[in-house]
Design goal:
about 375 residues, 2 domains
């Protein structure tokens, strides 16, 4: 009863309240935000509504922020100036910061809070990949803050894992110098106190954001669309409200693409390496399967389900695999359960070898 109705209410809220029209915002100015979707938004193209569960996921991020700041206030740190309005470089509208945090030595830093899912949290902690959109927003905010308080040159991007309540913080530096538009990510630290020194520089971070938003405005004014920055199988397109609209005419575009063309010379080395990897992959997969079968055969011959082999533990286990038996479905049921989607497939052949083999090409594809 309630479990079913709450997502539906959230879905209706997304339609009625969440879309207040396109505005060039600091939160959408980063390099990861799809420029094509921003142009659709600016052109007033209707978008597909978010599923109710997705609305709930996004909506609870603000509650996580309030909870986090309440915990910080119980420490020696002071958090103030929450939602303070700051000036942003044109064409951006004004921004609202999450707050300023002051340590026991009286040093002020920008505080930006984000709440994300577990898998994305782990990705950012375990890898060198950075949340560039978040840092772009931080750089824009801190550049605006410096007009009010020139001494603020540092900030903390605090990220909460919504699944586990773990935290990760990035400490960054942004100079109060218009000639050096460089944000430096200094360190990242997790809830266990583990710190990693990064010293990663992101140059032209605000200028690039301004240029991107200016490009969006030009596309809107000329009623044209930029190229798609992501492939059709990207998760970004799957969750985008304009995803269906964006790819609806792609089949026609695809058939109109040029053929029988010479590609740039530098791509030949990439293709050659791709072909070599493909050959190695096939051989490795074959050996992997053969060795797996050999180990299983020896264990079953000795009637052993689990045992030690040197420094390794070998264990056989049974698992149930569910498969759909289409023969048990009616034609109507099969059609109803079948979905169709487009995929791009790359095929690479060797014309010279094809001629030598009298029509038998060496093909590989993904």
């Amino acid at each position: 009863m309630l479990a079913e109705i709450i997502p539906k209410i959230a879905g209706m809220k997304a339609v009625d309240e969440w879309d207040d029209g396109y505005r060039p915002r600091p939160s959408s100015a980063g390099p990861e935000r799809c420029i094509r979707s921003m142009v659709y938004h600016g052109l007033g193209v209707p978008k597909s509504p978010w599923p109710g569960r997705m609305v709930l996921t996004v909506d609870d991020s603000s509650w996580h922020e309030e909870l986090t700041i309440d915990w910080i206030r119980q420490s020696a740190f002071q958090v103030h100036s929450g939602q303070m309005e700051i000036d942003c470089p044109p064409p951006m509208t004004k921004g609202h910061i999450d707050g300023i945090i002051t340590d026991i030595l009286g040093v002020d830093r920008l505080l930006e809070h984000k709440a994300i899912n577990h898998f994305t949290f782990q990705k950012y902690w375990n890898n060198d990949e950075l949340p560039l959109d978040y840092f772009t927003q931080c750089a824009i905010y801190i550049s605006g803050l410096q007009k009010v308080n020139p001494a603020i040159t540092e900030g903390i991007l605090l990220i909460k894992n919504k699944n586990t309540a773990q935290y990760m913080e990035y400490v960054f530096y942004y100079p109060n110098d218009p000639e050096h538009d460089i944000l430096t990510v200094v360190t990242k630290t997790n809830s266990n106190g583990e710190t990693k020194d990064l010293k990663i520089h992101i140059p032209e971070i605000v200028n690039n954001a301004v240029e991107k938003l200016n490009q969006v405005q030009k596309y809107i004014e000329t009623n044209t669309l930029p190229k798609r920055p992501y492939d059709m199988d990207s998760w970004r397109c799957e969750y985008c409200g304009w995803g269906h609209e964006c790819w609806s005419g792609y089949e026609k575009e695809f058939t109109e693409m040029k053929t029988q063309c010479e590609l740039p010379n530098e791509i030949a080395d990439t293709v050659r390496f791709y072909k070599e990897l493909g050959s190695q992959k096939s051989e490795i997969e074959k050996q992997y399967k053969e060795l797996s079968g050999k180990v299983k055969s020896i264990m079953k011959e000795l009637n052993i389900r689990e045992g030690r082999a040197g420094e390794y533990i070998c264990k056989l286990s049974l698992s149930q695999v569910e498969r759909l038996d289409k023969t048990l479905l009616t034609e109507t049921e099969r059609l109803r359960a079948t979905t169709t989607s487009m995929q791009e497939r790359l095929t690479i052949s060797s014309p010279a070898r094809k001629e030598l083999k009298n029509g038998s090409a060496d093909n590989s594809s993904i």
